[in-house]
Fold this protein.
Amino acid sequence: MARKQVKSVSGKVVAITGGAQGIGKATALALVRRGARVAIGDLDRELAEKTATELGGNAVSFELDVTSRRSFETFLDDAEKQLGPIDVVINNAGIMPLNRLLDETDETARLQVDINLHGVIVGTKLAMARMVPRRTGSIVNVASQAGKAGFAGGATYSATKHAVIGLSESARMELRDTGVDVSVVMPAVVNTELGSGLHEARGVKTLEPEEVAEAIVEGIETARFDVWVPKSTVAIATVMNLLPRRGREAITRLLKADDLLSTPDKGARAAYEARAAKSQSEDAAAEAEAGSKS
């Protein structure tokens, strides 16, 4: 079998949403180390600036609210003014407030859909508009293994990640023969603030952000569509898909993954849950409210 051609990221311009911390920050660092120039977009402008400073001269930062198309367009426009045409867009921003579906507020559900799904839809569209005319580029959408199965305690989160995978598959088909690649990244639980307070499933250790970052970069370099992190979970998913539903659910219980999102340490997640609830700028909230009344 011929080896897959590797495309170097050196000299490439990469825009990352939610890039100030966690997976986004680790990915920015991995890319800068390989010679890429990185634009970090994040709702927390101060933290984004701090991260860019830490990464050095090949990183710049901008305030970004992915729930606002205007904010997203401005982010990409400003990034291109400073760094040049964008070669890679990484739609990484996301939130995961946890609650039983019956206890989840409608506002929390809408915010997850706005950030986790609609933000990725807009980011993908804006990237396509820039890349297709140049017939080159890469779009990376960060989903989750929760996008391949439903998890109690995180129904809306799982739903948004299922949708991101479907969106990415459709975009890949539309972009065939255009020179623009699409990757969808599906990590297990990651040791970030978003994953705080969660226990480990049997046989699948909690990942470090750097492990996901390396997988993302490899996905860009090899134009891989399905990026499972860790790679070993591909085998688990393959076996699960061959089984009837009762069999899949039995294995999920055996792996202690059935309560992964429904029994978190709420004390350990308190700070994150409070921050996630405020993951939208006042301007974007007003924009969304105006849209709902039109």
